[in-house]
DNA sequence: TTGAGGTTTCCTGTTT
DNA sequence: TAAACAGGAAACCTCA
């Protein structure tokens, strides 16, 4: 079984030690012959004095090569916090803390990680990096996001308000709207949402999908595409997505055992990696890359054969019919027989009844595995055979204590009557009715014996994890029952504008697990000011966010 | 089956 | 004096 569901808040030590380090090791091992050559003296970049506004231009200079970067981290603000386990100045910059200078001279690895500073031309992309084939994050948007979240920026309070309070704006990215819309009506967001959900359901690592090619398509454009077009967009999984779309639309497509073999072999390779030996992992990746190349060649051949033998006639007509169908003045369903995806969806659209939308919203579907609605609604799974009613999962999504508190702070029925913000910009909140909050928490966990004493004990376990911190009863907040919720996890999807994603309702919860790039933000309230830490990294294939190799069975 | 994560429960002692 | 706070220890439950 492949586990891809990360904890929303990742421990920084685990994160750094296990993932970034391993990623660096894999990269550097592969680059070792190049390291023997004398590296040119890299320049130093100044990011300004402690407490000064963040100078995005220097960061911007680092970002254009992000697509092939193996690891990149920036610490903004002050405080001088150093990520444990990261010892070279090359992959860790402490911005705003003395000495307020970034120097790549401290490590020979720096030119590899930051070729824009070093000598990019002399270092070709490694097979490891090629195999990950990461999409590009818009650097200007990323810089804007970083800048906006940085102390000293006038945008910071506004943005943090959005993150914490989740205002009902129309600009939020809707990743579940595809469930209740006809595919022909899907927006680009819907397409992305469907792909993310599908990849999650199939256990495909999201970062392996060439999302950028699909992320700019509307549903109508997607339906216009044939199998080859899907494959062109993503040679690895395009065909699979085409079939998933066909399945979603209840369109029958000839079975293709070779594709199953491709996927099976891919998963076998993915799951057969060694657990400890880094070098062996690297060799496995190289081997896997070769195997995948062979498999993809076979897949391409198959696709071509199918196109020639089965769809030669229908492809052209499919496109023509679709173009006609998309023309609002010339829709003719009778001509769509050769356009399986579109014909089906248009017929479905044509026959939408008053109870059609609810059929998407109710319980498991029987028509193709799109049953995660029940998961989203938190339906209990794995009810025991012995008939005993067990407590609700402590690990169910949205069922963690901090999520409960966060939700309570968002819910007008509990905020401000039960909990209320003291300072949303700083994440400081106050429990107004402790026993009522405990009762609500108990209801959420099916635990009638919950008390505030127990609830507060659970909250104190967050101190170590830096999710909550106690607020001193002197100074700004002399009252009791005041806590500081200090962690915000922000996930960026490939090729999507971070500024849009930052407004997404799920981001403060970090509930978007399968993305290739992650911005991970920690706000730490310190004496009189706070710092923001961003760690931007690329997850190595075969590893989850916690630095564990994916489980195999 | 096992270990990890996230509580839950109980407890003692301290502070407000 | 009650309520809140702090934290140790062990049990519990679920997931991977």
UniProtKB/TrEMBL annotation:
Gene3D superfamilies: Transcription Factor, Ets-1 (1.10.150.50), Winged helix-like DNA-binding domain superfamily/Winged helix DNA-binding domain (1.10.10.10). Keywords: DNA-binding, Nucleus. SUPFAM superfamilies: SAM/Pointed domain, Winged helix' DNA-binding domain. SMART domains: ETS, SAM_PNT. It is found in: Nucleus. Belongs to the ETS family. This is ETS domain-containing protein.
């Amino acid at each position: 079984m492949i586990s891809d569901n990360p904890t929303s808040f990742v421990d920084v030590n685990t994160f750094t030690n296990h993932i970034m380090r391993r990623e660096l090791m894999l990269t550097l091992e592969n680059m070792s012959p190049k390291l023997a050559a004398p590296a040119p003296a890299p320049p130093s970049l100044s990011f300004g004095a402690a407490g000064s506004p963040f100078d995005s231009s220097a960061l911007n200079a680092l970002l254009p090569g992000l697509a092939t970067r193996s690891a990149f981290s920036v610490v903004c603000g002050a405080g001088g916090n150093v990520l444990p386990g990261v010892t070279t100045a090359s992959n860790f910059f402490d911005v705003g803390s003395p000495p307020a200078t970034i120097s790549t001279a401290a490590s020979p690895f720096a030119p590899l990680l930051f070729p824009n500073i070093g000598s990019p031309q002399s270092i070709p992309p490694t097979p490891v990096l090629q195999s990950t084939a990461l999409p590009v994050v818009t650097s200007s948007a990323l810089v804007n996001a970083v800048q906006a979240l940085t102390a000293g920026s006038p945008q910071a309070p506004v943005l943090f308000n959005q993150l914490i309070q989740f205002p009902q704006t129309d600009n939020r990215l809707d990743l579940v709207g595809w469930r209740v819309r006809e595919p022909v009506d899907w927006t680009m967001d819907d397409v992305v949402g469907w792909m993310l959900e599908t990849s999650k359901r199939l256990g495909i690592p999201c970062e392996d999908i060439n999302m950028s090619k699909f992320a700019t398509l509307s549903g109508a454009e997607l339906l216009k595409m044939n199998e080859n077009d899907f494959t062109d967009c993503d040679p690895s999984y395009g065909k699979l997505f085409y079939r998933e779309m066909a399945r979603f639309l209840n369109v029958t497509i000839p079975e293709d055992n070779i594709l199953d073999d491709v996927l099976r072999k891919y998963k076998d390779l993915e799951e057969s990696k060694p657990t400890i030996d880094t070098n062996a992992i690297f060799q496995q990746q190289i081997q896997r890359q070769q195997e995948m190349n062979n498999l993809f060649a076979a897949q391409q051949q198959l696709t071509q054969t199918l196109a020639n033998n089965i769809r030669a006639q229908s492809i052209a007509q499919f496109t023509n019919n679709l173009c006609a169908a998309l023309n609002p003045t010339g829709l003719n369903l009778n001509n769509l027989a050769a356009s399986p995806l579109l014909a089906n969806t248009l017929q479905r659209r044509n026959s939408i009844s008053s109870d059609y939308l609810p059929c998407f919203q109710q319980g498991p579907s029987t028509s193709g595995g799109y049953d995660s609605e029940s998961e989203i609604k938190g339906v209990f799974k794995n009810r025991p055979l012995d008939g005993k009613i067990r407590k609700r999962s402590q690990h169910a999504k949205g069922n963690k204590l901090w999520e409960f508190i966060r939700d309570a702070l968002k819910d007008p029925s509990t905020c401000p009557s039960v909990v209320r913000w003291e300072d949303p910009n700083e994440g400081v909140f106050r429990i107004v009715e402790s026993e009522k909050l405990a009762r609500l928490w108990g209801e959420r966990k099916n635990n009638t014996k919950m008390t505030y004493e127990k609830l507060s004990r659970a909250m104190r376990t967050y101190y170590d994890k830096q999710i909550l911190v106690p607020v001193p009863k002197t100074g700004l907040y002399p009252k009791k029952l005041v806590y500081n919720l200090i962690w915000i996890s922000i996930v960026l999807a490939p090729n999507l504008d971070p500024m849009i994603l930052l407004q997404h309702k799920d981001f403060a919860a970090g509930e978007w697990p399968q993305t290739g790039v992650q911005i991970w933000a920690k706000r730490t309230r310190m004496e009189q000011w706070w710092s923001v830490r961003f760690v931007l990294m690329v997850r190595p294939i075969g590893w989850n966010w916690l630095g564990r190799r994916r489980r195999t069975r």
